[in-house]
Amino acid sequence: MQEQEVRVEALLSEMTLAEKIGQMCQIHVGTLGWPQGEDRIRRGQAGSVLTVYGAAKINQLQRIAVEESRLGIPLIVGNDVIHGYRTIFPIPLAESCTWDPGLVEEAARIAAEEASADGTGWTFAPMVDVCRDPRWGRIAEGSGEDPFLGEAMARARVHGFETGDLASGRKLVSCPKHFAAYGAAESGKDYNTVDISERTLRDLYLPPFRAAFDEGAPTVMSAFNEIAGIPASANGFLLHTVLRREWGFRGVVLSDWNAIAELIPHGCAANLKEAAEKSVLAGVDMDMVSDAYHLHLADLVNEGRVPLSVVDQSVRRVLRLKLGMGLFERPYVDESLAGQVILRPAYRQKALEVTQKSMVLLKNSGGLLPLARDLERIALIGPLADDHHHVLGCWYRIGRDQDAESVLDGLRAVLPSTTEVIHVPGCDLEGRERPDLEGAARAARAAGLAVLVVGEGEHMSGEAHSRAYLGLPGHQQALAEAVHATGVPVVAVLMSGRPLVIPWMAEHVPAILQAWHGGIRTGRAVADILTGATNPSAKLTASWPRTEGQIPVYYAHKNTGRPATGAGTVQFDKPHWSIYIDEENEPLFPFGYGLSYTRFEYRALAVETAQVGLDGTLIVSAAIANTGDRPGDEIVQLYVRDRVGSVTRPVKELKGFQRVSLAPGEERQVRFEVPVQRLGFHGLAMEYAVEPGDFSVWVGPNAAEGLEGAFAVIG
Ligand code: GLC
Hints:
The protein is of the alpha/beta class. Among the domains are: about 360-530, Glycoside hydrolase family 3 C-terminal domain (Rossmann fold); about 600-715, Immunoglobulin-like, CATH 2.60.40.10. It is built from 22 helices and 25 strands. The strands form seven sheets. A six-stranded mixed sheet has the order 10-15-14-13-11-12, with helices on both faces. Strands 4-3-2-1-9 form a five-stranded parallel sheet. Helix 18 crosses helix 22 and helix 19 packs parallel to helix 20. It starts with a helix and ends with a strand. Alpha-D-glucopyranose binds near residues 80, 177, 257 and 463.
């Protein structure tokens, strides 16, 4: 038996039942009260704490665990390090729009360096929930609507977090969440019912989790939501059959906050004791703050309702995790380290790069952007124009406003000092105050050019912040129309945690930049893009609906028996197709869409493997040319369609992407090699398999366009 297992068994053999159960409890000292929390730790009744920040405080609790409890088992300290620790990066949805896993990994590594230096050993990230519903506030935390891109981002973030050579000499373990299908909440309402088929669960929502575990993630967080009647945190099919038996996952399952106790309002546990029984038997190893295990698990074991072997198995997993992190050897963190690591200039610079590559140019008619550098005057209008808080995004946690640059800061940093910037907020975010539309219009007229910075506050997305209306909150639409009515050219900079519904703006405003909540470097990144210092390259990873009525609207939809052919407006003359009589079928902006200041042309698609075996590799290439006048990056995408299957198949599925940097006039061949085994799905027998037959393939700039070819998989 390897050394670690020897240590685990030796520890286990010394532990009382109460101490074993203690390792299965994660407590929040903020809720319990600091003295009560310390007492639980001293008694060996807590194996983990969460939401404690700062090396000194963490060491204080760790000393109690190591030096005052009977067995001295160290705590594992968990925090939500979702998109940065103190160097706050763009929200994960924005980061995914870089389509650059290497860059996203670098951001995760920086977060790991800072968090680990400050005592955190476990991050409740990456959030890998696929989401096709922008009403859901937590779409901000994920990587959008596509599982293939979601897998790539999950791997990148796990690898970045789990890097082995942190300055602290310790590890930061990752925790993909929320297992599973939390992003499928009905009506986009957080915590709401999820009722999906096993096939959709397996083909759409599970792949990013599998990718995270393949990358070595040693823990996972079970979700709040039910799936087809069984809450995820008491779901044996999910936590035993899929996670343990099919995937061989040996790590720790942590429940989400109070999720075990929520089995009671879910209506599948009559009381906390029954909730504890259902969760532990389903496979939840550690209870986040509900105290169900703390209060009832010993009785459940003594009454024979929960075998001691189940408890022992969970405790072994927790001890293995702690041993693997080196916590027994290095339980404390150097309290002087954080000051040397946090907000390093190199980290701020990297954050700028990520932010620049996350912002999506949605419209630029007439080439209004980039702005001339020698502008005499510019009106900067909107409630987010000089904002230092909301740019931090929905999971900023200990990020600080003073670390952030506003758009005003950014423009002042890049524009010549001779350019006058007239800043007028024009209205507040929520519409609580009377707007100053005339003041805004006056500024626009005086300047002859307006940059309008509008959108959502960070508190309008994220957990428990779903929206039924996805337009501009408060009086911001009126502000946009008032500024537009002056007739001066308007550039809109949108900030949000989700796709917004902006049909009026898309029609009337000539230039639109989606800046998301871009983290501490938002302002400089916006300024660099508006002035052309940076050529935007980002592309959407979630479709933008024309109206809430279209939701869910996503590219990988099924064809149905009555497919609507082609885009187009109201279709009264086609009443018997899968269409609306009052809205187009297509989204306003499709998955994979984003503009550049240059132009790219796709040429010469070549399907090198017209026929390919089940164990073969699909090889497709195309030439991409930069036909514009400035260098630029293009994210080239490869999609396939399985024309006929044992079950219905999406009209398109992303199966490859590559970023290419091209000088003006340069043409390059981009070649994709896709293992045919990646083209599978769960067919009639609910087994993953690739089915021989005809496929279409596209290489293009987004999900709505591209060069089309065909190939066949032969059995
Ligand atoms: C929250 C979230 C989860 C987070 C946890 C701890 O409710 O659902 O994502 O990690 O509680 O803060």
